[in-house]
């Protein structure tokens, strides 16, 4: 099966967990590295998702004092929002527990107020909280360089710089020797939504989306040729060939999405009209299921269209500055 759409092992030492975010299955991924001695989390979900994470760790028999840290794909509330709550709980079990992030992500998480206000306009009270932590909760890491953490069997982890969805976005990538055996693409090259068949949605959320950087990041992941590719929303693709095929198609779809926004705006510079044309396109591409509800809710389609319009200079960010 090229698509992994349910929780479980992806490759040796790497597991997919379901946050059950917003009380939905297959909404948002957490990946974990667990070799029996060291556990490292990749993303956490919102502050409301911590409990589900602890249930999963217990189920897997992972002692909390073995969880040495977390890396995140980017600062958005639905992926990194839980870090402050997580640090409060896990630093009691393991005083060396760290949030390993690049400095931009640290800055965003330590100053998350405007992001939370903006996110609430799309997601309401599901957003949770991100609280400021003592600076020693964070360990600042360089992008595209292996982290100074000793893993098993020649495994090494780097945060591959993949801006575009947000400027701070990274794809945590596990190498075994020099082979990229698993890359957590996050939202750097689409969201893998599980409808009747998996479909790729753009992740052009406001205010930080940047089209050219996004396309460069997609190309960077294709060139890296990981053997397994994980997604924030939700699951993973197995096999280099399938990954390349999906990402090349996604790049074509992104060009078409952008062209549709440009054409619609030139026709009628009204956001609702532009969103309507985008919905038409997504229907043609089979990206929206017939009942049009979950998981690609109208709010999300509005947000990703608005993010593309900001990048094109048609609109200004409303709450948070990119
Ligand atoms: Zn995001």
Structure explained in plain terms:
The protein is of the alpha/beta class. Helices cover 35% and strands 22% of the residues. It has a single domain, classed as Ribonuclease Z/Hydroxyacylglutathione hydrolase-like (Metallo-beta-lactamase, Chain A), CATH 3.60.15.10. A 7-stranded mixed sheet has the order 2-3-4-5-6-7-8. Strands 1-15-14-11-10-9 form a 6-stranded mixed sheet, with helices on one face. The N and C termini lie far apart (38 Å). Zinc ion binds next to loops. Zinc ion binds at residues 74, 76, 165, 187, 205.
> How many domains make up the coordinates?
1
Strand content: 15-25%
- Radius of gyration using CA atoms only: 19 Å
Mean pLDDT, to the nearest integer, reads 93
CATH structural architecture: 4-Layer Sandwich
Salient structural properties:
322 residues, alpha/beta, Metallo-beta-lactamase, Chain A, 7-stranded mixed sheet, 6-stranded mixed sheet, 15 strands
Write the layout of secondary structure elements.
Elements: E1 3-4, E2 8-11, E3 14-18, E4 29-34, E5 39-42, H1 50-59, E6 67-71, H2 77-80, H3 83-93, E7 98-101, H4 103-110, H5 113-123, E8 138-140, E9 155-161, E10 170-176, E11 179-186, E12 191-194, E13 198-201, H6 211-224, E14 228-231, E15 235-238, H7 240-267, H8 271-284, H9 298-311
Parallel strand pairs: 5-6, 6-7, 7-8, 11-14
Antiparallel strand pairs: 1-15, 2-3, 3-4, 4-5, 9-10, 10-11, 12-13, 14-15
The chain binds zinc ion.
């Amino acid at each position: 099966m090229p698509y992994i759409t349910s929780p479980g092992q992806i490759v040796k030492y790497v597991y997919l967990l379901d946050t059950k975010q917003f009380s939905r299955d297959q909404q948002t991924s957490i990946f974990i590295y667990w070799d029996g001695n060291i556990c490292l989390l990749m993303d956490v979900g919102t502050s409301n998702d911590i409990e589900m994470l602890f249930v999963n760790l217990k189920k897997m028999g992972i002692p909390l004092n073995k969880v040495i840290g977390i890396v995140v794909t980017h600062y958005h509330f639905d992926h990194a929002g839980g870090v402050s709550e997580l640090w409060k709980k896990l630093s009691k079990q393991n005083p060396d527990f760290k949030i390993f992030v690049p400095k931009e992500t640290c800055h965003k998480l330590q100053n998350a107020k405007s992001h939370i206000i903006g996110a609430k306009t799309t997601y309401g009270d599901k957003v949770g909280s991100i609280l400021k932590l003592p600076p020693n909760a964070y360990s600042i890491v360089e992008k595209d360089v292996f982290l100074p953490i000793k893993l098993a069997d020649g495994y090494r982890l780097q945060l591959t710089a993949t801006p575009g969805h947000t400027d701070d976005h990274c794809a945590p990538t596990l190498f075994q020797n020099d082979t990229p055996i698993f890359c957590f693409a996050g939202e750097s090259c689409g969201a893998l939504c599980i409808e009747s068949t998996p479909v790729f949605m753009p992740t052009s959320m406001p205010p930080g989306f940047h089209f050219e950087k996004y396309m460069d990041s997609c190309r960077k992941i294709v060139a890296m040729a990981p053997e397994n590719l994980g997604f924030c929303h939700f699951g993973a693709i197995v096999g280099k060939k399938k990954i390349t095929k999906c990402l090349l198609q996604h790049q074509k779809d992104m060009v078409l999405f952008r062209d549709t926004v440009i054409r619609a705006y030139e026709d009628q510079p009204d956001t609702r009209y532009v969103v309507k044309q985008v919905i038409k396109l997504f229907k043609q591409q089979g990206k929206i299921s017939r009942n049009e509800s979950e998981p690609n809710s109208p709010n999300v389609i509005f947000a990703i269209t608005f993010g593309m319009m900001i990048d094109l200079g048609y609109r200004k960010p409303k709450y948070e500055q990119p």
